[in-house]
């Protein structure tokens, strides 16, 4: 991203868009529009500024710990604002002015339909939908503004440098302030003393920044909506309220539970009844006193929240500001007989996901600073819940897809004991490894173990073609080598490119120049036929780790020779090899998740490591061999596997 010309239309609070110079230290990156981006931005900025200071780049003599902290928080808020309200990729630029030491941060998104604003004075409970983030940025920044480009919007902030000598003299006072920020004492938030109002207000703004940044880190990447609800309660209680509750909407219902006609308690109150099947569920209740949680839960379940203006506003209303909620005094005992409760709608992507309710005893009205802070937090909670639900949907689709790509059951072969280990690396998406073992008719059984280049939808397309075609060709009577010939040609056909393009459409538009690509497949395919005294095995390996044969006496040798991957050479001709498995002999077939399991610079199969491991399995049955090889592969490295793992053991009885 280049300089922002001064003549562009700009909304600024002070001095306008800063002019660019030459030779300033600068870093830029592109982040996805996801809930993880604010955390990535914070890490990037802190690391970059630390590296600049360590390298003595001109201008870095002005960098102080406080300026770095302020920059991290400002970038966090700007990126969060872009993620929440634009949802597009975000371009982040961080630049240090060599002459002044001021730090300029710019966040560009591709949804310029609505400008963030800075509101100095707001009515109680009416914090606007774009949140407090930019008000907090404005308190840290010397100037900030919004610049529009064609199809893009840039929000920038200029953070002034501090005098390094004055900063050193003030280090003790600053350390005390940081301790207060991280403490977030309830008394100082909810009951500031009048004579300290100005100091408390400044502290709350800076403390809120720290609190929201830490909350974002805690919520980022959570993949379970119930855990998000629990974390929200822990963040709020007892820092900001005595108790907290989170209701989650039923995603299958896809709408809020509104009161039946005539049930609303006129004038914007809360209705007592909900249309059956559309109400929210109480996912989490949190109270500072554990012995009050159950009674509070029972009381809250009788009062499910609805938007106060539900009879006037559509279900997809974007209003997230707090509204009064009935005080559950009977459930809180004598000390909690009176108090104030507020409800915040949790909305992400224009969809209502639930409601967050906070309560404080012996309080007539929550301070505006607290209501605004909780509203900002509620947006982060909603974003995390939305991300968790999206992950859950994708995981469900992947599980259904994976079940369709793998056999429902492994066939039992007369005279052969079999064992299988299948461990996809990515539990949330389709694996690139697959296997099959099925009857082919005429007293024949066929087996296959393969590995597709890549993972996800594109790998699923190839597996979805290969496995049914293997079965079809085998049952039509084609022999092993002929099956590989035809499958190779199939993978090179234009039909595969069309299927690949369809898979890309599922995950979004392809980058320029990234058109349909042939997907390669490594495959070990074989045919088993029971004969007198054993099992006749005919097999071929196409670019796949070679199968190993374990003799009854413990000797090990390869049972095939290497051939070209499928989907690479159009006129490739494959050959097969035939041998007999005698009683007690074992055939081991694996994917490269076994042979290429890494520990530092070493791989599991270095120095015939797999053959050595198999030789140590002499005398074991098929199931024990499979389990032992799996365990040795896992123990080879202290780190979790980085690739899918599949192995098939066939043992003549």
What can you tell me about this protein's structure?
This protein is an alpha+beta fold and 653 residues long. It contains 16 helices and 23 strands. The strands form five sheets. Strands 1-5-6-4-3-2 form a six-stranded antiparallel beta sheet, with helices on one face. The chain has a five-stranded antiparallel beta sheet with strand order 8-7-11-10-9. A five-stranded antiparallel beta sheet has the order 12-23-20-17-18. A hairpin with a 2-residue loop joins strand 5 (143-149) and strand 6 (152-159). The longest helix has 38 residues, at 368-405. It starts with 9 loop residues before the first strand and ends with a strand.
Q: Tags for this entry?
A:
23% strand, 653 residues, disordered N terminus, alpha+beta, six-stranded antiparallel beta sheet, single chain, 23 strands
SSE diagram, text form:
Elements: E1 10-12, E2 26-31, H1 37-55, H2 65-85, E3 90-96, E4 103-109, H3 133-140, E5 143-149, E6 152-159, H4 164-169, H5 171-183, H6 186-190, H7 197-219, H8 225-236, E7 243-248, E8 281-287, H9 293-301, E9 323-324, E10 339-348, E11 351-361, H10 368-405, E12 416-423, E13 433-441, E14 444-452, H11 456-475, H12 480-492, H13 494-507, E15 521-531, E16 534-542, E17 548-550, E18 556-558, E19 577-582, E20 586-590, H14 592-595, E21 598-599, E22 602-603, H15 609-615, H16 622-635, E23 645-652
Antiparallel strand pairs: 1-5, 2-3, 3-4, 4-6, 5-6, 7-8, 7-11, 9-10, 10-11, 12-23, 13-14, 14-15, 15-16, 16-19, 17-18, 17-20, 20-23, 21-22
